[in-house]
Write a structure and sequence with these properties.
Strand order of the largest sheet: 15-16-17-14-13-19-20
CATH topology of the largest domain: Aldehyde Dehydrogenase, Chain A, domain 1
Number of helices: 16
Bound molecules: nicotinamide-adenine-dinucleotide
Helix content: 25-40%
Oligomer: single chain
Number of domains: 2
Distance between the termini: 76 Å
Shape: globular
Length: about 500
């Protein structure tokens, strides 16, 4: 029987009332296992109303109350890691160990939220003028929304809501309709941890639900993570409706390999970062830039390693790479490889037409490796979001940096070298929000913020870390004077107040 995933509104399951559902498929079998309710405008309004009502008390609750609930949530999340990873594998397809890694990185943000009291400490200046003190405080915004992508169904929501609710906001999450179950599990765990009803709500759906959140007058801020065209749309629309917005988009992450690099380590890193999660990571390495003479050796080392990767269902502990999210996406990824030779690429490995015995209807594709890729090739220009690695050649460090900086994307990038001076130059010269030095996927820890530049992020704030606290709060400055009874009356003075 097909499962149904419903909304979570006001602390309980809310059955879909719109009559519209979307299919959720197990990518390893191609079978539709679940249908997910798609919210109407009225259902989104009900979720926002529940969040608004809850904000009346949650926004006034003490830091001690909020963080004690988050500590309980952290313990529950830890306890249910395996179960959540299982839900992710069943709907996303990534292998179980990778899904566990996603939960672990999400947990880091809960750690940060448990200590939000340190981040929310205000500032006080005493005696700025005679008997005058000034304090700066930060306060929550109210109801905030999160709209998240399919590729990290637990981690990306966890980048957002722990910080938002720790700061005193209430939250409405619209997770990806392709793998919605992890979000509902997170809602259940929050409830079990003692979170008051309405503080965290989940509405499922498509553009109808998203558009309502973007225009709803009671939604004060929108956090979005997804593809670049939708991120740009979310930023423009939410901003036009007067909301604070951070919209993280797609990527084409480059890895620059200098001639002095440890080529075995670079090849290991390239294969792990390009093909992990079947390339469906916003921080995947999708372009390697080989500098000088290292190209041929590096490509050979990558090919040797890539050929050994075991592809299979995410539930099989021996699988290293699972299927892609949908058949349509698999076919789109394949089309880049099929067109590569005509665009001037050398096809070293062709993963198209791959299948897994016993799971023929799964969304399989093998690993592809394209060498001497011209920057004009679509395989280079587009975010493919699949297991396709492009290798480009550059004569010098400067040529490599110029090539990377010409990309419209600027999410993450990495340099592989033994030369500290070159690595330092790269950190300063490269136009990307996150840089790895001999680290291929430089996803920042929870207490440093995550975010890209250029077409990889629209808005002023990166996500989580200090930026997260800043995004989910607004500043207030209080100037206080307590006159001494002995002071002479100040009298009326129409001049602009001066401090003395
Ligand atoms: P997507 O943009 O298709 O969808 C993201 C969210 O937007 C989903 O909740 C979806 O329902 C909604 N959405 C889709 N089309 C919409 C429309 N026309 N109007 C309003 N809402 C719409 O992204 P995806 O395919 O789920 O995820 C993959 C993308 O996300 C990749 O581009 C990847 O790079 C990006 N991503 C970026 C980061 C980052 O941190 N920069 C992290 C993870 C994923």
């Amino acid at each position: 029987m097909t499962n149904i995933v419903n909304h979570w509104i006001g602390g309980k399951t809310a059955e879909g009332a719109s009559g519209t559902y979307g299919p959720v498929t197990n990518p390893a079998t191609g079978e539709v296992t679940t249908k997910v309710a798609f919210a109407s405008v009225d259902e989104v309004d009900a979720a926002v109303a529940a969040a608004k009502e809850a904000y009346l008390t949650w926004g006034q609750s003490s830091l001690a109350q909020r963080t004690s609930i988050l500590f309980r949530f952290r313990a529950l999340l830890d306890e249910h890691r395996d179960e959540i990873a299982g839900l992710i594998t069943a709907e996303h397809g990534k292998v179980h160990s990778d899904a566990l890694g996603e939960v672990a990185r999400g947990l880091e943000i809960v750690d940060l939220a448990c200590g939000i009291n340190v981040q929310l400490k205000g500032e006080l200046s005493t005696q700025v003028a005679t008997r005058v003190d000034v304090s700066s405080i930060r306060q929550p915004l109210g109801v905030v929304a999160g709209i998240t992508p399919f590729n990290f169904p637990a981690m990306v929501p966890l980048w957002m809501f722990p910080i938002a609710i720790a700061c005193g906001n209430t939250f409405v999450l619209k997770p990806s309709e392709k793998d919605p179950s992890a979000a509902v599990k997170l809602a259940e765990l929050l409830s079990e941890a003692g979170l008051p009803d309405g503080v965290f709500n989940v509405v499922h759906g498509d553009k109808v639900a998203v558009d309502r959140l973007l225009e709803h007058p009671d939604v004060k801020a929108v956090s979005f993570v997804g593809s670049t065209p939708i991120a740009r749309y979310i930023h423009t629309t939410a901003s036009a409706n007067g909301k604070r917005v951070q919209a993280l988009g797609g990527a084409k992450n480059h890895m620059l390999v200098l001639p002095d690099a440890d080529l075995d380590a670079a090849a290991d890193a390239a294969v792990s970062a390009a093909y992990g999660s079947a390339g469906e990571r916003c921080m995947a390495i999708s372009a390697v830039v080989a500098v000088g003479s290292v190209g041929d050796t590096l490509v050979e080392k990558i090919r040797e390693r890539a050929e050994k990767i075991k592809i299979g269902p995410g539930t099989d502990p021996s699988s290293e790479m699972g299927p892609l999210i949908t058949k349509a996406h698999r076919d789109k990824v394949a089309s880049y490889v099929e067109g590569a030779a005509a665009e001037g690429c050398e096809v070293v490995l062709d993963g198209t037409g791959y299948t897994v015995e016993g799971h023929e209807d799964g969304h399989w594709i093998g690993l592809s490796l394209l060498d001497r890729v011209p920057t004009t090739a679509k395989a280079y220009q587009d975010e493919i979001f699949g297991p396709v690695l492009c290798v480009l050649r550059a004569e010098t460090y400067e040529e490599g940096v110029a090539l990377i900086n010409a990309s419209p994307f600027g999410n993450g990038t990495a340099i592989f070298t033994r030369d500290g001076g070159a690595a330092r130059r790269f950190q300063l010269e490269i136009e990307a929000g996150m840089v790895g030095v001999n680290v291929p996927i430089p996803v920042p820890v929870g207490y440093h913020s995550f975010g890209g530049w250029k077409d990889s992020l629209f808005g002023d704030h990166h996500i989580y870390g200090n930026d997260g606290t800043h995004f989910y709060t607004r500043g207030k400055v209080v100037t206080t004077r307590w006159p001494d009874p002995a002071d002479a009356p100040a009298g009326v003075d129409l001049g602009f107040p001066r401090n003395h």
